[in-house]
Inverse folding.
């Protein structure tokens, strides 16, 4: 796997193929590598024993990091004692290291993929599209054409979209199309479009322009569809009666 930052400063998976990355997971991996320390306690300080555990152990992985100072590499093995041992390009020797470092380096590609279907996060959407129906936000008012709609009912839909996450990934979209969704958000008016298909008892989703297929929990889509059906016209509050 290879990670790189895009123009917005977000982590992306660049190899084996371009994929969205989970920023928190990648940042956590880098933090653990940055903070990695040799375990020099008396029980683990024997360099010969560490070398033997490394040589006879199973290779977990190799991590290389590149910054303006160049590239450094660390290779992690899991010893027969179930502890992790590291060989680094920055120091001479082989040393026992914390288990969390080995666990992070040993993760698979899906562990570092962004499972969220939408990227708008906590940015306020200014436009919401549902099966071709477009709702625009101006100030605190939502409108579609000349009609105004209840802001709370639209916010319920947005909250459901914000929380949509994949339970796993697939290589191919299945089923028949159920929903097309579009969100415009943020100061840069970022636009995200998603198609959702019903595939037997589950739902497949695909972001526009991306090959990845997100398999979604059926209950979450059922809840989303209920929220969509609950979108209602704005009803002005009744004027207060004069005393």
């Amino acid at each position: 796997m290879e990670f790189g930052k895009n123009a917005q400063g977000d982590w992306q998976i660049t190899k084996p193929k371009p994929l969205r990355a989970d920023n928190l997971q990648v940042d956590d991996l880098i933090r653990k590598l940055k903070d990695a320390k040799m375990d020099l306690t008396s029980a683990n300080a024997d360099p010969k024993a560490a070398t033997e555990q490394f040589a006879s152990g199973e290779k977990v992985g190799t991590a290389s990091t590149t910054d303006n100072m160049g590239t450094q590499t660390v290779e992690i093995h899991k010893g027969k004692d179930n502890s992790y041992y590291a060989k680094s390009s920055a120091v001479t020797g082989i040393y026992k290291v914390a288990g969390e470092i080995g666990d992070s380096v040993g993760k698979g590609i899906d562990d570092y993929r962004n499972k969220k279907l939408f990227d708008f996060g906590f940015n306020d959407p200014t436009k919401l599209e549902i099966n071709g129906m477009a709702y625009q936000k101006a100030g605190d008012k939502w409108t579609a054409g000349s009609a105004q709609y209840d802001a709370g009912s639209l916010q319920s839909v947005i909250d459901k979209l914000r929380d949509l996450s994949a339970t796993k990934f697939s290589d191919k979209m299945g089923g028949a199309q159920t929903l097309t969704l579009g969100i415009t958000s943020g100061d840069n008016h970022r636009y995200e479009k998603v198609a959702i298909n019903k595939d037997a008892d589950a739902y497949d989703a695909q972001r526009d322009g991306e090959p990845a297929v997100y398999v979604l929990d059926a209950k979450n889509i059922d809840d989303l569809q209920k929220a969509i059906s609950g979108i209602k016209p704005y009803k002005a509050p009744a004027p207060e009666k004069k005393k």
